[in-house]
Amino acid sequence: IGGQPAIIIRWYENGDASQYLRLNPRASARRYVLDIIEGIKSLHTHNPPIAHGDLKASNILVDDDGRFLLSDLGLAHAVNGTAAATTNVGGSFRFMAPELLPIIIDDDTQSSEPTLASDIWSLGCTIAEILTSEKPYYARHSHSQVVVSIVNGILPYTEANFINDFTEDGIAGSKDIWQVLKKCWEMDPALRPTI
């Protein structure tokens, strides 16, 4: 554009998942959750595996058929199995796995690179956001409150968010969803499920 390089992406009139669900509250959350899981599965089973690094509803676009598509892969990278430190602190604190929280060392901010396990934490947060229309740690109003909650092992949502009859499967479905989400939010990344 004007002699300068540019990245051109397709425009999605339905906006992102958050916007779409606000405008379509009766939409099938189950279908959208499956779309998101399939997108992450595609990244995680790629050769080499790719960690998204910033999964949340506002980074999921909705196509003309109402399908949810992962977007904003700016923090995505191939996972080579080694733990590396980076000086980039990216992502969204509310969706960030504990192991990714920035550490301040001698006025130098460092954090670990996103991993497949950290994506699973964010996937749990994103699924919960889709089902509840609330952001993770919705009762915490500042970044510092969110970080303190994460460090202290407080889950991003409470069981009360899910034990209701708003899900398609009613109360039993909500309890099942809650059990899966709790596994996604294990403090030890090695204990989180894989896709």
Task: Report on this structure.
With 195 residues, the protein is α+β, with helices and mostly antiparallel strands. The protein has one domain: Orthogonal Bundle (Transferase(Phosphotransferase), domain 1), CATH 1.10.510.10. It contains five helices and seven strands, in the order H-H-E-E-E-E-E-E-E-H-H-H. The strands form three sheets. A three-stranded antiparallel sheet has the order 5-7-6, with no helix packed on it. It has a two-stranded antiparallel ribbon with strand order 1-4. A hairpin with a 5-residue loop joins strand 2 (60-62) and strand 3 (68-70). Helix 2 (29-44) runs antiparallel to helix 3 (116-132) and helix 3 runs antiparallel to helix 5. The relative contact order is 0.14. It is an enzyme of class 2 (transferase). Pfam families: Pkinase. Keywords: ATP-binding, Kinase, Nucleotide-binding, Serine/threonine-protein kinase, Transferase. This is non-specific serine/threonine protein kinase.
Summarize, please.
The protein is α+β, with helices and mostly antiparallel strands. It has helices at residues 17-23, 29-44, 116-132, 143-151, 170-184; strands at 50-51, 60-62, 68-70, 77-78, 85-86, 103-105, 108-112.
Gyration radius from CA atoms, angstroms: 17 Å
Main structural class? alpha+beta
CATH class: Mainly Alpha
What is the strand arrangement across the widest sheet?
5-7-6
CATH topology name: Transferase(Phosphotransferase), domain 1
Count of the domains: 1
Residue share in helix: 25-40%
Overall pLDDT score? 82
**Fourth CATH level, the homologous superfamily:** Transferase(Phosphotransferase) domain 1
CATH architecture: Orthogonal Bundle
Largest sheet: 3 strands, antiparallel
- Order of H and E elements: HHEEEEEEEHHH
Give the beta-strand count: 7
The first-to-last residue Cα distance is 40 Å
Beta strand %? 5-15%
Shape: globular
Show unreliable segments: 82-89
Number of contiguous helices:
5
